[in-house]
Protein: Zn-dependent alcohol dehydrogenase
Organism: Virgisporangium aliadipatigenens
Amino acid sequence: MTRAAHYMGDRTFVVNGVEPVPPGPGQVRIDVAYTGICGTDLHVMHGAMDHRVHAPAVIGHEMSGRIAELGADVTGLAVGDPVTVIPLEWCGQCPACLAGHTHICHRLTFIGVDSAGSMQNSWTVAAGTVVPLPPDLPLRHGALIEPTAVAVHDVRRSRLAAGEHAVVIGAGPVGLLIGKVAQSVGASVTVLELDPHRRAVAEEIGLSTLDPAAVDVAAHVREHTGDAGADVVFEVSGSGSGVRLATDLLAVRGRLVVVAIHPVPREVDLHRVFWRELEVIGVRVYAHADFEEAVRLVHGGQVPAGRLISRVVPLDEVAAAFEALEAGGSVKVLLDCGAAA
Ligand SMILES: [Zn+2]
Ligand SMILES: [Zn+2]
C-alpha cells in the first residue's frame, strides 16, 4: 500500500492507503519525491474546478521523483532515474495538434486536474510525459521545473531579447520565475507588486520592484527607458488594473503577454494598441523544449529554485499545506511525497 491525498470536494482532503497502479505497456510508475502546490490546485480546493475534478480525486502536477517500475516497451529510462513529468496529454488529431501545437490541443488533458496527479507516494504515467532530471539536481528543485517551464514558454513567446526592458505585473511564483527567466536572456526587468512580502522576495532573488500603489510606474518606466517604454509587459496579476496599466507602459511595437487566467473579459485600450502598434500575445502552458530549458536554468542556478521554496510539508498534512499557502507569505509550498527520504 502507498499513500495518496484525495480531494473530497468542499475544501477537504483525505489521505489514505491505495494500491500502487502497475505500469501498463508504454507507462512508468514513479516514486514521487515532492509535489508543489500552485494556484490551480488552490482553485480545485475551493471547488472552482469541480466540473473537471470529480471527487475523490488525486491532484498535483508540479513534481519530482524517481522511476520505480517500467511497463513493457519503455526504452531510454531506468529504475532509479530522477525525473519530472510534463502533465499534458493531447489527441494528435485536432487542427492544433496537426499544426504542431500539441500543448494547445482542442481536447487537451491536463494531468493532475483532468486525470490523477502526483499528490501521492506512487504515480503511474505515460513514459512519453517523463523528463529526465540531472542526477545532481536536488529533487526539491525538480518540483519547480514545471512552473519554470511556464515562465520559459512565456518569455520565449514574447521574443524578449538581450538589452530589452521587461515589466512583470504581479510577483506570485510565476511572476518571479518570469522575472528570472527574462534576466537569463539578458533583459532588464522591473516587477510590479502591491504586496510588500512578495516585493521583498523578488528583491532577495535580484529583481527590481516597484509598488504600483506608491509610485507613478509609467513615469518610472519612461525614465528608465529613455522615454521609450517597456518592450514587453507580462500581465501576471489577473486584474483589470493590470491590463490597463500594461498598455500604458509599452513602447512602440511593444508586446503585451497575457499570462494570468483572467476570469472575466477585461477592457483593453485598443486605441493605444493601434497608436503604438502593440501586439497582444496569449501564452498557455509549455512545450517539451520549454521543459528542457527549465531544467537547464534551474540546474545552472539562473532560476534560484531553492530560494522560492518556503515550506516542505509531509503528504499526510496536505490540508495544513494548503492552509499555509492560502494564508499568504509563502512562495512555493511543497508536499514531501516520500521518495526523497
Ligand atoms: Zn501549477
Ligand atoms: Zn489535439
